[in-house]
TrEMBL record:
This is Pyruvate dehydrogenase (Ubiquinone). Residues 192-320 form the Thiamine pyrophosphate enzyme central domain. Its EC number is 1.2.5.1. Gene3D superfamilies: 3.40.50.970, TPP-binding domain. CDD domains: TPP_POX (cd02014), TPP_PYR_POX (cd07039). Residues 5-116 form the Thiamine pyrophosphate enzyme N-terminal TPP-binding domain. Keywords: Oxidoreductase, Pyruvate, Thiamine pyrophosphate. Pfam families: TPP_enzyme_C (PF02775), TPP_enzyme_M (PF00205), TPP_enzyme_N (PF02776). One of its GO terms (molecular function) is pyruvate dehydrogenase (quinone) activity. Belongs to the TPP enzyme family.
Length: 580
């Protein structure tokens, strides 16, 4: 019986760590590992068309499945292609193990064909990046990489020369039990005591929530009720905190809506829960701020804190809630709820006025109909740009749906690759890629991956023939739009030529039927919707400079964006306000 190779040992450890797939593009330095995957039960090789897609897909799988995922690239250019998707996974706190195969070990440092130094290149987008230069380093280096990725919630990279991968594994290698889950973190008593005192001294408290509130919905709602506090959220907090939330006042930031901005600025105490919200311009500088986060390096890096609390949001609130004396006055909360409802209704008319007859189709209308037709547990992957806006404002969270995107890294072309990884976690669950024409065309080659594996991903293409968000940025800066137009083909025809279901929609009345047909189709499908390139979004607060920029670039433009069913929720919350 042949002895196990280093590559075989590598793959066995991945399986023990819970990895079910290895996304990548084959290549000579990877051949020993790919062959080991072929011979190992419990793990599959997923052949994509571009390694960037492999990294995005692994990151999406890790976020949806909540376990370690993996990708691989061959030496030099192959593993270099991984870097953008790995940056996204790392900044999204997705546990991903990346294998960067390497040139023959004897040639390293000689300027050999395709030579790079991956152990150096990936240091900025990983918690751990090391090269295995001897078979005796296995399995310790890989086990350390696995535990860094899982324990620190991010990327680990292992560089492995192809010749070493093909060697026999050391006979007395030490394999230990792997860490496959993270512990909870409870704050110290001193921090809890101080936070209780600050809450007691504050008349008006606002909560602002991020993705760190995942799994803590009940605790946050109890906390808000005790404090009579409005609850705003960042984009990554939307799916975890907006549903079943009678205290919701919307989202702040560049894609924001509602009264979240006012609630965070008009309170006495702002409590940031599990958010690394990057736009400090939207945070107040004249109120007391407390931040609760499980990652201590994030405490205070966006705003000046009056108290930093290191801990999981759920564990922190479980300690805190029993000690909070419920506040009696709802005056601040009710005022913010009314502002929120009024703000939503003030912009919803653009969404409701003659949209079923408007051509090109309003993208708001597309997102709203998509929200209505998609399944209750659908996974939405969202391209960066205007698709972010429409998803933020129209896709309704319910505690079962997921919405992921490149929300922290901000990369183009993420939606389709992430849909691949999301769909592999469960072929029976509906996965919808909300793609822009710019992002989709950038990595369009991997639409063929959907066809090759018969993945039933539904791509809804918001095709406005432009880079809409970039155009908006230029207009705000007072610049004429330039270099933002796309000359696009009939994407539906391309989908059909590839062997998928494809339909092009140019009239609003055709949209609902096209979506229903695509959702009923058992395999991959693409709905190419021609949308209005003049439909742009605005943040909740507009500065004088922004207004001047628009005036310079476009004269008088009316920019309104609807908010779909959120206005119904806001009005429902208002109806729940106690009457004297």
């Amino acid at each position: 019986m042949a002895k196990q190779t280093v590559a075989g040992q590598f793959v066995d450890i991945l399986v023990r760590a819970g990895v079910q797939r290895l996304y990548g593009v084959v290549g000579d330095s990877l051949n020993p590992v790919v062959d080991a995957v072929r011979r190992t039960a419990g793990i599959d090789w997923i052949q994509v068309r571009h390694e960037e897609v492999a990294a995005f897909a692994a990151g999406a799988e890790a976020q949806i499945a909540g376990r370690l995922a993996a990708c691989a690239g061959s030496c030099g250019p192959g593993n270099l292609h991984l870097i953008n998707g790995l940056f996204d996974a790392h900044r999204s706190m997705a546990p991903v193990l990346a294998l960067a195969s390497h040139i023959p070990s004897s040639e390293i440092g000689t300027g050999f064909f395709q030579e790079t130094h991956p152990d150096r290149l990936f240091t900025e987008c990983s918690h751990y990046s090391e090269m295995i230069s001897s078979r005796d380093q296995m399995p310790r280096v890989l086990q350390t990489a696995v535990q860094n990725a899982i324990g620190l919630s991010g990327v680990s990279v292992v560089s492995l020369p192809g010749d070493i991968a093909d060697q026999e594994a050391p006979e007395r290698s030490i394999e230990h039990a792997l860490v496959t889950s993270r512990p909870t973190v409870r704050p110290g008593d001193a921090e809890i005591d101080q936070l209780v005192r600050m809450i007691e001294d504050a008349g008006k408290v606002t909560l602002f929530c991020g993705s760190g509130t995942a799994g803590a919905h009940a605790e946050v709602m109890e906390f808000a009720e005790r404090l009579k506090a409005p609850v705003g959220h960042a984009l990554r907090g939307k799916e975890w905190i907006q549903y079943d939330n009678p205290y919701d006042v919307g989202m702040s930031g560049l894609l924001g809506y509602g009264a979240a901005y006012e609630a965070t600025h008009e309170c006495d105490l702002l409590i940031l829960l599990g958010t690394d919200f990057p736009y400090n311009a939207f945070l107040p500088d004249d109120v007391k701020i407390v931040q609760v986060d499980v990652r201590p390096e994030r405490l205070g890096r966006r705003s000046k804190l009056d108290l930093a609390v290191w801990g999981d949001v759920r564990e922190t609130l479980r300690c805190l809630n029993p000690r909070i004396t419920p506040k009696k006055s709802r005056k601040f909360l009710d005022r913010m709820l009314k502002k929120h409802a009024d703000a939503l209704e003030g912009v919803v008319k653009a969404y409701t006025r003659k949209v079923e007859k408007h051509t090109p189709i309003h993208p708001e209308f597309v997102a709203s109909v998509l929200d209505e037709e998609a399944e209750a547990n659908a996974i939405f992957t969202v391209d960066t740009g205007m698709c972010n806006v429409w998803a933020a404002r129209y896709i309704s969270p319910n505690g079962r749906r997921r919405v992921i995107g490149s929300f922290t890294h901000g990369s183009m072309a993420n939606a389709l690759p992430q849909a691949i990884g999301a769909q592999f976690t469960d072929r029976r669950r509906q996965v919808v890629s909300m793609s822009g024409d710019g992002g989709f065309s950038m990595l369009m080659g991997d639409f063929l991956t959907l066809v090759q594996y018969d993945l039933p991903v539904k791509v809804v293409l918001f095709n406005n023939s432009s880079l809409g968000m970039v155009e908006l940025e230029m207009m705000v800066a007072g610049l004429p739009a330039y270099g933002t137009d796309n000359h696009n083909p009939d994407f539906a025809a391309i989908a059909r030529a590839a062997g998928a279901h494809g339909v092009r929609v140019e009239k609003p009345k055709e949209l609902r039927g096209a979506l229903r047909d695509a959702f009923k189709h058992k395999g991959p499908a693409l709905v190419d919707v021609v949308t209005d390139p003049n439909a742009l979004s605005m943040p909740p607060k507009i500065s004088r400079d922004m207004v001047q920029g628009f005036a310079l670039s476009a004269g008088k433009i009316v920019l309104e964006g609807g908010v779909g069913r959120m206005v119904q929720m806001a009005r429902s919350n208002l109806r729940n306000i106690p009457r004297p």
